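[step 3/7] fold_predict: job queued, chain A
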Amino acid sequence: DSSAIVEGYFEDGREDAAQLRRGNFMARARMMVLYDHSVTWGGLVIGTGNKTETLIGYSTLWGDSASAFNPIGDLYKSQIRQLSATVGVPDAVIRKAPSADLWTGQTDEDELGLTYEMADHILHCLCNLRLSPDSLSAPPYDLPEEAVEKVVGLIRSMSFKRRLPEGAGRGGR
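[step 4/7] structure written:
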């Protein structure tokens, strides 16, 4: 159980670790457990991340971003909700506040400071329609400038999570 791994790690002089640090460790511990099970079951670890989380960096490197196959990875969060409704996922599950469940009361949207619906709309305009950030705050889109700036900032600052680690010999390419 990944909770036992986390508690065992943090009980030895690391009790004062911040929530985010504990949360990231929990996400990585979950994947350690899943990869261990995949060996005993002879299967692959399937990812549950989506395009929204990947683009804005709302994932933990070597945690929830680690998988052998990610069937919903090219879908925005809003598209996953639509797909879920189409295949009959109970409404209570679809409407549940998205959360990595890394600590009590944590929700993705509270941490992000905007809804996934807003983030998806901005991401779709930027990535799929290839519109400039400046055009999104003007008609016909009229999106809040602060939200656009936040999403653009997250895409840029979290780009390292979407690349393989750099090697010493590759830095100058």
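[step 5/7] annotate
The radius of gyration is 18 Å.
The CA atoms of residues 2 and 29 lie 5 Å apart.
exit 0
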